[in-house]
Each structure stands twice: as C-alpha cells, then as structure tokens.
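Re: beginner question about structure tokens

> Can someone show what the tokenized structure looks like for a real chain? I only ever see the sequence side.

Sure, here's an example I had lying around. Input first:
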Amino acid sequence: MFLSPKRHIAHLDLDAFFASVEQLRNSRLKGKPVLIGGSSDRGVVAACSYEARKFGIHSAMPMRAALRLCPGAIVVKGDYEAYSKYSGIVTDVVRNTAPLFEKASIDEFYIDLTGMDKFFGCLHFTDELKARVSKESGLPVSYGLASNKLISKVATNEVKPNGQIEIPFGNERGFLAPLSIMKIPGIGKETGYKLLKMGVETVKILSQIPIEMLQNLMGKNGSELWRRAQGIDESPVIPYHDQKSISTEQTFQQDTIDQVFLHSQLFRMTEKIAFELRSQNRLTGCVTVKLRYSDFETHTTQRSIPYTNSDHELFRTARELFIRLYERRILIRLIGIRFSDIIPGTYQINLFEDTQENIKLYKAIDSIKKQFGEDKLVRGRSLLSKSLNHR
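And the corresponding structure tokens:
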C-alpha cells in the first residue's frame, strides 16, 4: 500500500456553474433544462443544467442533437461577463477564508488544509466554507475532502450536485476500486476504449495491472496511470495569483514596411500566446498592439473584446488594431502584442456561437503542440512569417 505524507486537500466545485448562474439571474429558468451555447444549427452545447443532463445531454454535444433529446430545453447564449463576476465572488470568499488555495478553473478550487485538523477540524472548516460560498454567491457547490487532489476531485464528482464527502486517509484505494476507469482524470476516450477492450472496466482491475505492463501499453503515461489507480497523487496545491497580462514582441533584423510580412508576424505572435492562454486555461478580454518605428517612436492601441483565447478571433482584433495604428507609413523595427484582463476559462466553454468543427480543430492543434512541441505545428501564415524574417 502506497501512502503519501498525510495531507488534507479539499476540492470545491460549483455545480453546473454556467447554468446555475443563468438560473440564479432568471428565476423562470430554475428547475428547467437549460443549454448554454450557440443557437445555430452547427452550434454546440458549452454547458447545461442538471435537468438537461437527465436527458443524456453533455457539453460539446451538437446543439441539434441536444434539442432532439430534449425538445423543451431552453437555449441561452451565455454571458461570460456574468460568469466572471460570480467566479470572482466565490474566489473572494475562498481567499478570505482558506489558508492556501489553487483556482483550477473558473468554477473549481483546491484548498490545502494540512495541519488545520489539530485546531478547527478540516471537515468542519470545509462545511462552513461550503455554506459561506452558497450564502455569498447564491450558487450550489459540492466538495470532496481527501489526502490528495486526485481523490478529492473524484470524490466531489461522485456527490454532485450540492453534496459533500470525506475520504479518510488510508481509504483511497477502497474508494476508487468500484468506480469506472472513466472516472479517473486523465483517462480520455482513446485510452478508455483501449482499456475497456482489454476488459479493464473498474479502477480495481486497473490497479492490479503491473506498472511495467501499463508502461508497455501506454508509453510514458503508463506509470502515471498506474499511480492514479493506486490513489497516489503528490501534486501540490499551487497558490493562486491573478495573472494580469501575457505578451510577446519581435524586433526585426531589418526595419520593414512589408505588409504581408508584418501581418504574418502578427499572426505568428498571436498564435503563440493564444496557445499559452489555452494551455493555462485562461481567457483574455483585452488586446493591445504596439508598433515601434525606425526612429524609435512607439505607439500602442487596445480594445476590449468578449472573453476568448481562440487564434482566429484574437488575430482579427489584432489585425484591425494594427491597421488603425499604422499611420506614419515609415519603416517599422518592432511589433508587439499583449493580452490583458485575463480570467480562468477554456476555449470550448467560451464558444457560445462556434461550431463543433472549430472545437475539434483547436483540440487537435493543442494536443499535437503539447505532445511534440509548440513549434512542430504552425499555420501557413506563421511559416510565411518565419521565412520572410530569415531572408
């Protein structure tokens, strides 16, 4: 039996967050199947209420398919400003109460309560925090309390909505054993399908497979999968801090007025930091473009936008700002771009009017970049930028 040093980690998760916010803002939606997302024929479900989930609806499902399952569902476009506001309310409650916390996404938190069992009692503390979050925000929340982040997250998912559970130290494997392997974070459709074909349906069966065999089957991910099946997770709670901005800039080898080159360079830079945003599960609400001319005179302009982290939306804004900014028509020596007003969130969730094809495209692009390196997959405009910059 493998046990990490005794810790107390709570996972706090707002139940059906987007739908719950909409139901809080509009009492007529309470108790109704609510779908958040694009209303067009090619739109997707970004989120849904528990009433909608009873019909088999889930996030990333085509909206048409969801409405076939539940013709009476109410479609709401979504308001990320409102979601950010309510996430901020909950964050302030956690910040003012918890000794150490990590904001894992716009609607979930990890709280390190290690050592507090000697003074207040970790379960009592988390109960009070749950009640305080619900009172201050008006939103339903669930939590799991365990010895590590993995177990606490899985436990939370088992008691949602509006539930709470503690997994005592030493009971990690017993808690996981009867669960489906698909309940383990990190097991996606492809890995899950491979395991299910082998007859591995529960975590108990998975935990009995030798680590060497899992390494042969899954490569470098095999050892991590084995550790999770044993209930082992030593990852720390990372202290939360508000990231104000993310930026990049490029000084050219030769000053230029080549519009094709400048636009392609701007696209490459936008693509680079948009991927960084998505990797951190962040969205930006403000884009700034900077130009420095050959005489070192520097100009900037910015624009607030709906929260996003998608390349095509951000580049469209950056290009429009560049066109508005480039008035002197003399050689340019530097171009820069900055994203600010950054909040937690994911690309898929923000696509209230996007298509399933775009969601799949970005997932595929980011998966390849994370696996093989950011520079191994770039768009044609970026390649043009690189070739022009090295002529």
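Each token stands for a local structural state, so reading them left to right follows the chain. The chain is about 45% helix and 20% strand.
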